[in-house]
Amino acid sequence: MQAIRDNRNATPLSRRKAGGRGAVRVPPAQPRQLPRLRLPRPNLRGLGGRLQHLLWPLLLVALGMGLYELGSRLMPLADRPIALISVEGELEYIDREAVQQVIQPYLNDSFLGIDLDGLRSDLLAMPWVAQASVRRVWPDKLVIALDEQLPVARWGDKALLNNEGKAFEPQDIARFSELPQLNGPERSKRRVMRQYQQFSSLLRPQGMVVSKLELRDRGSWFLTTDDGMELLLGRDNLVDKMQRFMTIEQLMLSDRRELIARVDLRYSNGMAVAWRDAGDAEKVSE
């Protein structure tokens, strides 16, 4: 018996597909990647400070040049001739004409060009000028302030002393003959002035005035009152000796003061009194 196969519904056998002749499949090209370069990041820290260090000198130079240029342009406008000079101060002994003579050489100087220190030095060289100041007042004025010497005593025959013990030599010293006479070594002016002021403050309450005080070369002090009484004080313990004299004078001698010619206080515990003659006492009392 022979079997018969129905091939109508049979699945055809798969055939092997033959590739195209001479054709080659090429895969698509991939993009080429280049290597990345990593550059160092700039360090900006401190850059502002460095720029300031560089720019500040430039700014200062530019500012200086600008100010110089501005000053050179304004200088001719500001430096004008002096139009007014004012002299201030209570002047009793200073001669204004003498002041004018000192100022005269400076009148041709300009407002900014005048030598203020030189003018002040010339004013201080005047015998009656104790202090002097010179200043500019915008736009063209000069103000001079003068302080006079305060004469307190005579020093020797040619000079006067002010309250600080500084000597000055005016020309008209004869008009100050009523001032007390102080004498001593040349370098002892201030010391003698201080001692005079101390003695005056002690004697004034008892109505006595110092008319003469002398410090001799050996250091001894001699004082004369306005009524002619001489006090020999020695070298040391001057205040104690003066207080001792004042106590004894007030208790025992006040009613006979015009009869006293000299009091020697050079003793440690007492004093010696020398009396005037009767004729001399009458002259003093007159």
TrEMBL record:
The keyword Transmembrane helix applies. The chain crosses the membrane at residues 54-71. One of its GO terms (cellular component) is cell division site. Residues 80-149 form the POTRA domain. Keywords: Cell cycle, Cell division, Cell inner membrane, Cell membrane, Membrane, Transmembrane, Transmembrane helix. Part of a complex composed of FtsB, FtsL and FtsQ. This is Cell division protein FtsQ. It comes from Halopseudomonas oceani.
